[in-house]
Amino acid sequence: MNLEAVKLAAADNLWSALFPELMLAGLALLLLVLEIVLPKKHHVVIPDVASAGLLGTLIGLFINWNSSLIGAETFNGLIHHTHQGQMMRAFFMICALLVCQLGRLTLARQPMPKIEFYHIVLVVTAAMMLLAQSNHLLMLFVVLETLTIGLYILVSYHRTSTASLEAGLKYLLMGALSSGILLFGIVLLYGVAGNPALPAHSDNAMYYPELTRFLEGNRDNFVAGLGIVLVLVGVGFKIGAFPFQIWVPDVYQGAPTPVTAFLAVASKAAGFAVLMALCGKDGVFASYQALTTPVLTVMAAATIIFGNLAALTQHNVKRLIGLSGVSHAGFLLLGVVASATSVLATNAIYFYLFAYLIASFAVFGVMTHLAGPDDSDQDLDHYAGLAKESPFLAGVLAVGLGSLAGIPPLAGFMGKFLVFVAAYQSGARWLLAIAAAGVVVSIFYYFGWIKAAFFETWTPPADGAPTRPARTPVTWVTGCALGFLALASVFFGFYQGPFGQFLALK
Amino acid sequence: MSNLPFDPLLIAIAAPLALALLIALGLPKRWSVTLAYGAFAVPLLMALHTWWHFSGVPQQDGYAFLTRYSTGLDGLGISLKLGLNGISMPLFAMAGIVGFAAGLYAIQSQAERLKIYLMLLLIMQGGLMGVFASVDVFFLYFFHELALIPTFIMVGVWGGRDRSYAAMKMTIYLTAGAMVSLIGLIALYVKSGANSFDLIAIKAHLARVPLEAAVQQNIFGLLLLGFGVLVSLWPLHTWAPLGYGAAPSSNAMLHAGVLKKFGLYGLIQVGLPLLPAGALHWAHPLAWLAVIGNVLIVGFVTIAQRDLKQMIGYSSVMHMGYAFLGIAAGSTLGVGGVVLMMVAHGLSVALLFLLSTCIHHRTHTFSLDEMGGLAQQAPVLAAFFVAATFASIGLPGFANFWGELTIFVALWKFSVPVTVLAVAGVVISAIYGLRASAAVFFGPATERMAKVAAQHPPADLRWAEKLPALILLVALLFVGFWPKSFSTPIDAALTAKTQVATK
Fold it and tell me: Looking at the domain assignment, is residue B501 inside a domain?
């Protein structure tokens, strides 16, 4: 690339378009600077700076919601600004805010450096936000790596805990493998799309519109098909879809609870944002639906069945919520399958993700309060008698789990309902039947958890066996956040107003 | 003419739900209990109001009190549309009455953790009022689920014998049934092409663009299977006696009395008018299943029961058989009979569950073999129970009589052998009903009963028990002596139904 081209590219860049991401990156660096500059006794304000900065950026995003850039591409086509992209930006920032809040509780119990946690969370969040808007396979891979590497560190953040280290190693190995597969798929696609012997070949084949054009022109190219399948496999690892879910229970159990929440919600949502950009109705792989739809259908069916059945037998709540998250990935995959033909499906997935965010963080918030110094040891038995000791936490837990189970009038029900309608529209009947059965099974383990919290009483073991950890008292801010999440689940179950317009988007 | 400054239907739904939310947010116990009287009274008053004014108010598309609230999903054709037609009005009234009786009884009962108990019952009540007031099929389902979930919790926590097993079994059966019916409703939404869950809009659209017979058959089959589980169609009924046997009384009253009618209501309000070819296709299998399974097999099983509550549970499964028969008959007469019967059965089974708990308080057992001679100590209770049994058997003077009679008349035209077998069922229900009354109240006191009576001399009904029972009994007699107050609107709604053609 000569100098002129670089100049042209620079003129094309609209740095203000990336204002939220830049803010977060700057904020992340600021935290490190503050750690050096501020005297140690003032370090307590650094998490507050992180939260305030995130909140400010989020408000800025809302102010500039209907930006004039919507629909445009910046950075030479690397980034595509859409309504969905705005939605996901807000999604990841809300996740980050909540993760930071939960992080304070968990970090307070550990003799660990604290500031880096917030730093990495912010960087990972910025990467996720870019991922949801990427319009280029190179961009996709680079931000995906940025966020995955950040998550490797976060998963093994409790570096004195063997469980956390084991989880970090497992995540690293699985993540590296999946990145390799993904990259191999990208390379195959790039290589075949750049082959001058083929019609519609392109010298910018990683750019989505160009790749789309190429795939439309070559509808049964074996190498392209192989590349597509490998890319799907790579993303399948990230979202924990069967048969690439094997890392989920161990990693979710070993990671610090806020990181588990981050993995379960934000990382999964990032994977689905990519999947929808690739496999949706107007997605890059749209002309290969004859290939992607069966692959995704089988994956969805197996994920729903495996996730629900495996979650049934769990006693450790972190493993339980991890495996139930696998089943949610299956329901979302059902939506992705439907999104091949139904516009409603794409929007339904976004609603589902938000409902999942609200409900999951309510549950993770309660889990953080019940965890002890050993973060990986969180048993169902620890919840016995929670309703008596802390009715507030028990209530939040019940709403969160109810929403995850998809019970009206909670938001989770609306998410499932919309995905089901879309699935029926697209004709995925058998998959829908499997999903319905999955819902029935899921009621079982969610209710088991609620039952433990509300209807069982805790009797300390007589033989001096290890007792359960002490509960962390609910602080004012965390209490407000959890109460807000619980009420939001109820509110969005009854009234979808703000999402309604979005859902009807064509 | 209705001249309330607010929408009576919305208030009837919102009042119980609002109090439930307040209790969840931490309302003190004393306030919760006091306000609960009001929160159960509001739906009752609204129900009586709509019943009284129903024929006077202007109707639109066959619905009175029609209002629409946007929930933000108008783009998908979902909105909270409330209204009552001739079919839903009687059930709405019944839900208000039974809910009030159950609520009164619950407030007076010394249940543990009364606040949460009342909260769950209020959620149920709000959901029930919503089920019968919804014109939008989505909200029909939504409110049903809302009312259903508290059942599982209440059986699991406040239930009697085998409560964990009963709660789990109920949860699996009813969630599965609900999911199947949800898929059926989604299928109807997508296949109808009306892009709306609004019953009126779907009906209007299908009248223009009829559905193919095969599609109708499949969708009706899904609905029948899903709703069938919810209404305890044989052989998918086993959750019902077990669940009702374990459920706390107020919950059993609301579930068996009102919530269970949702499946039948769905078939009548959605299935029959929108999918006539589907209904026709399934009529004969349904009729035989109902008469052999629900009426005869379950009838004999009921005779064999030695546990009072289980017996009432089985008898309610049996009576659902008659309702299915009326739906199978499909004529205006038959379906009208089903609606009347749903109202009557709701009142009478709620009364029976209420009284059986009153009996249990005095005998400390549900076993019919260990009771006897209670009429001497509790003559009023005996009178109520015998009256409720008569109502349940279908003696003239009670609402049930009209329901069963019209169903049988309609059934004669449909199939004579089915009618003969169904009428035989009346004898069965007379046998178990009268035998139970005799075992509990008459004859000499058993040894065990004498021992219990010596420790706690059984008193007659207290006012807290008498009042709910009286409300239910008066309603039963009122409808029994003046069925026209319901049958006229039912008839109007059923005959005015724009029949949807089949391609």
Answer: no
Read off the tokens for A402. 């109810």
- B1 pLDDT band (50/70/90 cuts)? very low
Report the Cα–Cα distance between both ends of chain A, in Å, rounded: 39
A480 contacts: CB under 8 Å, gap ≥ 6: none
Q: Which residues of chain B are within 8 Å of residue A407 when distances are taken between CB atoms?
A: 145, 149
CB contact under 8 A, B75 and A424: no
Helix or strand or coil: residue A73?
strand
Residue B353, Cβ density class (10 Å: 0-12 exposed, 13-18 middle, ≥19 buried): buried
- pLDDT beyond 90 at A123: yes
Stronger pLDDT, B110 or A440, i.e. the higher one = A440
Q: How many domains does chain B have?
A: 1
Q: Which residues form the domain of A87?
A: 3-503
Tell if the CB–CB gap between B24 and A447 is shorter than 8 Å. Answer: no
Q: Give the range among A310-314, A497-501, B277-281 with minimum mean pLDDT.
A: A497-501
Lowest-pLDDT range, A180-189, A289-298, B58-67?
B58-67
Q: What ipTM was reported for this prediction? A: 0.85
Report if residue B109 sits inside a domain.
yes
Buried b (16+ CB within 10 A) or exposed e, B136-168: bbbbbbbbbbbbbbbbbbbbbbbbbeebeebbb
Residues B376 and B320: beta-carbon distance below 8 Å: no
What integer is the mean pLDDT of B133-154? 87
Query: What contacts A357, CB < 8 A, 6 or more positions away?
Result: A91, A94, A95, A265, A269
Rounded Cα–Cα distance for residues A306 and B260 (Å):
33
Tokens 């006794």 belong to: A41
Contacting residues for B25 by C-beta, under 8 A, at least 6 apart: none
SS3 A47: helix
Phi/psi at B87 (5° precision): -85, -40
- Which residues in chain B are contacts of A451 at CB distance < 8 A? 156
Task: Determine the structural domain holding residue B97 and report its residue range.
Answer: 8-496
Please state, in angstroms and rounded to a whole number, the distance separating the CA atoms of residues A502 and A504.
5
Average pLDDT score over residue span A21-47: 89
Spell out which residues of chain A touch residue B171, defining contact as CB-CB under 8 Å: 443-444, 447
Q: Considering CB atoms only, which of A409, A421, A504 is closest to B142?
A: A409
Model pLDDT for residues A91-110, shown as the tens digit of each residue? 999 999 999 999 888 888 87
Nearest-CB residue to A494 (from B24, B71, B171): B71
Q: Which residues share a beta bridge with B2?
A: none
For chain B, give the mean pLDDT.
Answer: 83
For residue range A461-499, what is the model confidence (pLDDT) as tens digits? 666 566 677 778 888 888 888 999 998 998 888 887 777
Single-letter residue type at A215: L
- pLDDT at residue B145 above 50? yes
Are the Cβ atoms of A504 and B75 closer than 8 angstroms? yes
User: Is any Cβ of chain A less than 8 angstroms from the Cβ of B204?
Assistant: no
E-state strands within A35-158: 73-74, 79-80
Percent of chain A with pLDDT strictly greater than 70: 94
Looking at the structure of chain A, the number of domains it has is 1
Q: Does B173 touch chain A if contact means CB atoms closer than 8 Å?
A: no
Mean pLDDT of B128-150: 88
Of the candidate ranges A228-237, A349-358, A413-422, B56-65, the one whose mean pLDDT is the lowest: B56-65
Phi and psi at B64, nearest 5°, equal: -100, 160
**Does any domain span residue B417?**
yes
| A440/B contact by beta carbon, under 8 A | yes
Nearest to B338 by CA among B417, B253, B278, B279: B279
Whether the link from the prior residue into A243 is cis, omega within 30° of 0, is yes
Q: Quickly list H helices, B193-254.
A: 199-208, 213-230, 239-246, 249-254
Q: Determine, yes or no, domain membership for B3.
A: no
